[in-house]
Amino acid sequence: MEYEKTNSVFLSGTVSQPPKLSHELYGGEKFYVITLDVQRLSGTVDSIPVTVSERLISLGKFKFDVGEKLDIYGEYRSHNQDEKNGKSKLLLSVLCKDVAQKSDEVDANNIELTGYICKPPIYRETPFKRQICDILLAVNRPFFKKSDYIPLIAWGRNALFAKNFMVGDKISIQGRIQSRNFTKIIDEISYEKTAYEVSIQEITKYEEKIDAHISFEEKEMRL
After folding, report:
1. How far apart are CA 33 and CA 193, in angstroms?
2. Most exposed among 26, 68, 147, 220, judged by the fewest C-beta atoms under 10 Å?
3. Do the beta carbons of residue 62 and residue 105 sit within 8 Å?
4. What gap in Å lies between CA 212 and CA 48, rounded to an integer?
C-alpha cells in the first residue's frame, strides 16, 4: 500500500560519540544513540543524535565506533521526556532505518518533512534586521496514531512567508538539521546545553488545512 512519505532524512558524516543505550521496547528490542558530526560548507559542524536499533548493529556490516564515516538514512523523531520538576524535555533524534559506508568526501545533511502547523509561528528580527520565524511542525507517522513535533526555523523571505501561517496549515519543507550550543543559567549556575532544530531552505504551503489530528498537548518544555 502506497502512503505519503512525510519524513525523510539523509546524513553523511563521522561518528563522534559511540553507541549508548537509549531505551528498550516492550518486546525486548534495544536502541542505542550515537552522535554523527556533519560539517557544513562553512566549516561549522552539526553534532546530531542518531538512534540505532541493536538489530542493525548486530548485523555487523558497519561499525558505529568513533571515527567511522557513515551514510545514515532515516526519519526525524521526537518524544517528551518527563522530568522530576514536573516539566518535560523535547528530545530529538534521527531514527536510523538504513546505513552505508560514506560514499562521498563531502558531508551531507538533508531533511524533507510534510506536516501541520501546531502552534502559532513566532516571528522576530535580530538587531541587524535579519528576519527569523520559529515554527513547530506536527509530522504524522504512517500507520501510527502518533505525530513527531519538530521545531523549524525560517530565515529571510522564508520567515516573512511563514509568519502568517495558521495552526492547521499543511506545509512541506526541505532543509538541514542543525545543532546550536548555548549557556543556560539556573539558580545562578551556568549549564552548557545544545538545541536542535531544522533550518528551512525551501518551503511549500498547501491549500489543505486540517486540525483534527495535530492537537499539540502543550506541556512546559525546556531544552
Report:
1. 17
2. 26
3. no
4. 32
CA distances from 154 to 124, 130, 131, 150, 197 (A): 11, 11, 8, 13, 10
Q: What is the CA radius of gyration of the chain?
A: 18
Grid cell digits, residue 176: 538541514
Question: Can you give the chain as a three-state secondary structure string?
Answer: CCCCCCEEEEEEEEEEEEEEEEEECCCCCEEEEEEEEEECCCCCEEEEEEEEEHHHHHCCCCCCCCCCEEEEEEEEEEEEEECCCCCEEEEEEEEEEEEEECCCCCCEEEEEEEEEECCCCEEEECCCCCEEEEEEEEEECCCCCCEEEEEEEEEHHHHHHHCCCCCCEEEEEEEEEEEEEEEEEECCEEEEEEEEEEEEEEEEEEEEECCCCCCCCCCCECC
Burial of 191 (0-12, 13-18, 19+ CB in 10 A): exposed
Question: pLDDT for 166-208, tens place per residue?
Answer: 999 999 999 999 998 877 766 677 777 788 999 999 999 998 6
Read off the pTM.
Answer: 0.86
